[in-house]
Amino acid sequence: MHGGSNAAAVRLAWDAVGVYPPPPPNDPIQLTDDVTKGDQDATLGNIQPYTLDTGAGHTVTCATSGGSDGDADLYLRFGAEAEVNPNSTINECGSFSWTSNESCTTGAAPSNDTLYAAVHAYSSYTDLTITCTISDAPICTLSGEGESCRTGADCCSGSCSGGKPSRRVCLS
What we know:
- The chain is mainly beta and 172 residues long.
- 8% of the residues lie in helices and 37% in strands.
- The protein folds into 2 domains: 23-138, Jelly Rolls (Sandwich); 139-172, no CATH class.
- It contains 1 helix and 11 strands, in the order αβββββββββββ.
- The chain has a 5-stranded mixed beta sheet, with no helix packed on it.
- The longest helix is centred in the N-terminal third of the chain and has 13 residues, at 4-16.
- The relative contact order is 0.21.
- The mean pLDDT is 85.
């Protein structure tokens, strides 16, 4: 039922109406602090993961820029793959404009951890660059424990939790 000629017939039917399977996942690309990685290209729907080793208490700013074509969106998260979702409650931050020029800054890293970045091709792009820069965490002027937040980047602790956006609070 799930293989053989039935599977081939289903694939042909989906192809005929222009529905194609998603591309296979890409391997993460290791980034180095303050070193630009260029010549990145992707087709519609593609997700390119990146990783950057960080130290506890550091913030990270990542920025993408591209040629005049396409729309690449940027998402960051400590400790696990970033979720490609503008409404994510688990990412540190996300940047999703109409272009490939994106930037976002995390809160302080909770531990010696890996930062995971994901660049999502909302539309196909060429010649994208990505740069992530690690900084010492400044004296915090963000929200403290129990105060409202949207993402971890709003909190001194770097951690925001809760369900609906109006009910999220900074954790310790």
